[in-house]
Write a structure and sequence with these properties.
101 residues
């Protein structure tokens, strides 16, 4: 962790690409595991197994894109952060960092 922190301090311009690649690897592996789950669902006779399979393939494609295209990854992460921030304030709540004395 110390080495990772040091690298981030000296090369902050690569931080978004690193985060995108890390998320991409996680999403890619999740897609691969979901493909296996879809095939097991087909074997068990679940009729909507194809939906699981198609979403797993889509997740795999997005994971590969996040790993190999840093601009795409940075854009996706920015959109996700903006949408998440909008969801936090969607009902009029505001987060404050006020310290009560």
């Amino acid at each position: 962790m110390v080495v990772l922190g040091t690298v981030v301090l000296f090369h902050p311009e690569n931080l978004m690409a690193f985060i995108a690649a890390a998320f991409g690897i996680a999403i890619l592996f999740d897609g691969l595991f979901k493909i296996r789950i879809a095939l097991d669902a087909k074997r068990f006779g679940i009729k909507d197994w194809w939906l699981i399979l198609s979403l797993a393939i889509l997740a795999g494609i997005v994971g590969v894109a996040l790993v190999f295209d840093s601009a795409f990854g940075a854009g996706v992460l920015t959109i996700l952060m903006v949408r998440r921030r909008g969801a936090d304030n969607s009902n009029g709540r505001f987060i404050s960092f006020r310290r009560d004395t």
